[in-house]
Structure formats: C-alpha cells, structure tokens
Amino acid sequence: MGEKMKEGRIFAQKLSYKEVLDSEGREMGVLHNIVADAETGILTRLVIEPASGLDTSGFKKENDYILIPFDAVKSVRDVIILDSERVKTRA
Known about the structure:
mainly beta
C-alpha cells in the first residue's frame, strides 16, 4: 500500500515516541500510547511519559504516565503540540 496517505491521516505507529509540547513551547514529555473508545473508535486520551522536571500535579495519572484529553491536540508534525488551555481542564 505504500506510504502515501490521504491528507489529514496519520498512522498511530508514526506517533509513538513523538515529543509533546504545549502551545507555549514547554516540553510535556514523549507520547507513549493513545486511548480510543472501544465502541466508537474515537480517540480520547494521550498517554504521555512526562518530561523530567514537569510538574504533574493537576494531571490525571496512570502509573508513571500523565493522561491528556485528545481534544487538546492542536497539531501533529515532527512534534505534537497541545493547547495549553485544554491540557489540564478536562484531564
């Protein structure tokens, strides 16, 4: 099938281990996994290994990871950019 994809689509395996920044340029960590609703297939959360020194208070956590609502994602390119205002509001 090759690497050619329709615009706006990206394979989940291409997202693994991408650096995650907030919209103010602060390093949040590295993407570990993505959570999807089993019934709808809608992506719901990012599972991020937090950057060392990141204050993780206020984040929903699972083991050593922080959970970020998927709707906080602003863009995905070489890095994943999150909307700073949405990162914790619905975590």
